[in-house]
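FIELD: query
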Amino acid sequence: MTITHVFWSPTKTRTIDAEHPTTGRGAYSGLTLQELNTREGVTLQRMTCEEAYQLQTEADRARYCTGADEVTAERADDALCCLPPYRWTRTAGVAATSWEAFAIGEPLTDRLRTWFVRLGRRWFELIEDRAIDYADLIDAVKASPAFHRAEA
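FIELD: result
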């Protein structure tokens, strides 16, 4: 059985059930779309799995990607040591112009990870896509209000 469609809740921003390809009923609940609408008290939408995945990704970005916050070096070190880091890289050079970045090994969602970025001597934490380019990651930190606050 291949699931191609789901019942999506726009108010809860998540899939409520998968549509059984033969019966058209919810594969998990056994209910029709109309019965699910009554039970959930909202108007669910029937859509493809791909459409629902895109909406879920957008909802996750709106919920979690709120910009960078400055953190202590100890907080970044704790994150680095809790699990093997994901995509850890750093530059060599003068401390004021060097940078370092890694994500926590365990993802937050299917696409999002918690990143730690060091610019010079300052560390920042933010949530971004797992496949983000390092230049875009650094630009996201530099665009945040936390980056523009004076060092304490």
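FIELD: remark
Strands lie at 5-9, 14-18, 45-48, 69-71, 86-90, 99-103, 112-119, 122-129.
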